[in-house]
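User: Quick one: structure for sequence A, then sequence B.

Assistant: Sequence A:
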Amino acid sequence: MGRLEFGETWVYESIVTALPGIDVSRPFAIGLQLVLFQVGITLIWWVYDFPTETLLAGTAAVVVATLGSVEMLRISDLVRSERLPDAYQRLLFGSSIEVVLAVLAFIALVTYLFTAGTPETPSLVDRLFGTEPPVVAVYLTLLVLWDVCYRIGTAWWAAVVALWRSVRYRFDEGTARVLRRADLEVVGFATAQLVLVPFVRDQTVIVAVIVGHVVAVWLVAGLSAVLVTTRAEVDEATDTGVNATARE
């Protein structure tokens, strides 16, 4: 990965570049993430003879986390390819709000997983791992779930900051086109999370949260894409000089 200044990257991007003496390509980092998680989940499923649904649910979570990594890098590349206001890039990359959102989502998820369920309706943990889940299975599950929650927090924050950017600034047509694509990548980023719904179909609260989050991102990022396009068109129609990259 290319070296970037801390405070100008998402936490995900900073972790690898912070390790001394290590400089790996993006495809390698993403492939390593996918392989390590998937191998770990498959081994646990095989060793403990869990039901097939456990393997499929774990694989779905790994796929969502990996797609999240790909989308985060695509979005950051698009944003960094243009001359954009410092305030926008600081909010998007340097505020670490996505981590705060991820922590809140993760704590809420763990609380629900270990408190929900009745003798008549077993919890998701009981259904996938039995009433006495092995420690190693719980550890890996929480690690993967954290990765998923981080991606969810990032998608939401990217959508909110994009809407703020599109309301506050106007861009020339070329820049607006790139930003519109970035906004649509955020929409795709969130949509991928719907892969998890079939595996939590009997958990009404989790289904409502996932679907509600995705719909909210669609609305916010979609509105941002519309605004950044229409405001650029109005800006060009009324501009009498050379278009600035961004104007308040």
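Sequence B:
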Amino acid sequence: MRFEQHLNQKQSQTQKLAMTQELQQSIQMLQYNTEDLLSFLEAKTLENPLMEVKIETDDYDSPIKNTKNYQQSDNDREWINELPDESISLFDYLIQQIHLNYRDTYLRKLVLFLVEYIDVNGYLSITLEEACQKTGATSIEMLDALTLLQMLEPTGVGARDLRECLMLQIEKDEEAPELAYIIVEEYFEELASRKWQVIEKAYQVELYEVQTIFDYIQKLSPNPGARFSQEKESYIIPDILVHVRDNNIEVLSTKSSTPKLIFQQAYFDKMTQAKDKEVEEYLKNRKSEFEWIKKGLLQRGNTILKVAEEIVKRQSAFFLEKDHPLVPMQLKEIAKAIDVHESTISRSVNGKYLETDFGIFELRSFFTVGLQQGESDEELSTSSIKKRIQELVNQEDKAKPLSDQKLVDLLLKEDIKISRRTVAKYRDELNIQSSSKRKRYEKQK
């Protein structure tokens, strides 16, 4: 058996990206929002004595909300008068009221027991039977304790279900419609599912009167305790400022999004005098780290600004016109325009915010898909179509609301061709109910 070994030398050239630590952290810095970036830099200053971070603010004194939808909700009622002076939990607020209003009796001990089972929305999460078993109280004593609990603020607290919660609120409201309490008590399911003909027949009332009660119920709170457990509003620190003056659009980076790195030269000079090789190597590494972080920070700011400028350029109508229309735009279009990878655009717009005179918007929200319209090359953005659907619904005759098919027909007259299924999808995304649930009954004049 003959064995032969042949050795060949071959040279090949391949190209691949080496993900160094510096490159990985540069990518991370671009992906961070402003708050995360500041946390990252502060952590680096703890590790690197040669680096100091100077953060300049744009004088934001209060939390700023994302105001993409800047219509006030109907649920924003004057509940502030019912809230205690200090921001406390629902549990503590109830305990305060119990000690203030009720004497130290066995019944008060039962009320305090029940408070332990009030959830964050204000509902009682234990049955009276279970409460009796745990405390040894009679069913009458426990019912009395529940009654005392339900007399506390916020109105509706201590309810065992949604119907009871609404009934408690109606009972305390002197301006509640006359039949509201009894209808919620006996025909709650029919009222909610809009089977109003049953109620009309049972109480010999007109449909418009049921409509009035239904409208009133809509204004009550289904979760009376929820406002005590709201998380503290987080700050949105805009990365970009857009100013419009005489139809000219100016795009600027905010001070907060571009923190300054300061090199501690005096400390560096002092430490180099030690003439210690280990110290010199340490200082060399820390100075190198400072330089690439500073370079990465500058590159991050420039990239976000370039992306924002291109977005504003393509969406100029949004900033100049009163109805703020958006045109179809995709990540790859911006990537091609500024000659970067699409993933870079994605990192640049996620969690980054742009401030205007009329609100604050996430950069990602300016990217919308479009629908081809007929034989034309023009595309219409989905946001524009949704906006038109919303306008048509707002203008409809509430006694004869527009069906999805009718909306399709009206849009077709405006050369907007979409299917009934698409209309239904957009309607759901806009939180618009079906036509049967939008129908209103008004008193005939």
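The first helix runs from residue 21 to 31. The CA atoms of residues 77 and 219 lie 8 Å apart.

User: Thanks, that's what I needed.
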